[in-house]
Amino acid sequence: MTLADLIPTLRPTLAARLEPGLWPVTTAATCDGRVSVGGCDLAELAARHGTPLQVLDVADVRERCRAYRRALPDAEIVYAAKALLTPALARLVGAEGMSIDACSGGEVAIAAAGVSGERILLHGNVKTDADLRAAAEARVGLIVIDSLDEIARVAAHARGVQDVLIRVTPGVDAHTLPGLTTGTLNQQFGLPFPEAAIAAKEIGTRRGLRLVGLHCHLGSQVTSPAPYVDAVHRVVGFAAEQEIDLQVLDMGGGHAVDVRGAAHDGPATLDPKDLARDLGRALRGACAHHGIAVPHLLVEPGRAIVARAGVTLYRVWAVKHVGDTTFVAVDGGMSDNPRPALYGARHPVRRIGKPVRAPLSPMTVVGRHCEATDRIAEEVPLPADLAVGDLLAVPCTGAYTRSMASTYNAVAPTPMLGVGGGAALPI
Prior knowledge:
The protein is of the alpha/beta class. The protein is built from 11 helices and 20 strands. The strands form 3 sheets. Strands 4, 13, 14, 15, 16, 17, 18, 19 and 20 form a 9-stranded mixed β-sheet that branches. The protein starts with 27 loop residues before the first strand and ends with a strand.
């Protein structure tokens, strides 16, 4: 059996206390507190494999891939591998018709387990010689130029003629968190238009490079199509002004995933259908205005593909009442999910495996590591009778957890299981 064989036989409805949109599509909950994903009881998985444990719903990943392909049938959907990448996952998204976006030679090598080289795109603001050798060996389809300094090195490593894009920073504020913003002019990614114009001329002098278009990424957790529409008009206008042959336009990813649920004022989910409608209209209009052909469109969802497929399980090891705050300490934390400590990401938390008979009380769930910022969730409602040994589940943790994990305090890496059809396999 492979990961791709984990196909659920049914899709139960969510119990009322589990918010739709936060949990994987195959989630089922019962009134006695049991929760299953992919036909696997989460408490049983925790008992068998230990905690912390990350679970990934294969059907959910497939459904997200297919939603993008339905919404954007004429575009190339490029999975942003930095969100989560393993050989099994590369094969899964590759089988769903996705290309893969890699940020290092290591990611190129893993991506090659699932897709052919021409369906791999390499970018990143630093590309070492080792990264470029790996790209050349894999014969990646596209390399994104991120600085003037790397043009000569990309050309030197090219085998034959390498198609490239220039990453431009269009000066568009996507109105997301400061640590997740990449489309404005005051950050380290890409080239402002004046420098991008210089890059285009320099690439034109390199026999081993062929400039086929432009790349643009505005940031992460972007909640509206409007910033992408603004960026399209600016980037297409720049291409027309510089007489760049715009065969390919990569508008990046960063599509928001709601990680808090309807009861919170968190970011909304950016529906790929809304993005496709507004982005397509803007691209056609901008190209018509400037009298150029509509380019081949690429988009790069990563978090939007895998975030909601993931659930992390923790065991409670201490409950402390300190003043007005109840701290719940668990056996994981920033080593398996550094996002709360890095940029304030927060998650809902649920006790599972037991019925809820006590009233809910606000509690702060903290990790096991020697850092005051090791907080998984603050002031989340949990049963007042929560005790040592209880099992907590944190949904919407499929993206940027395993990828960013560490062994801080020499804590062992957290295993991840792909689940579906009642079976669970290491992913």
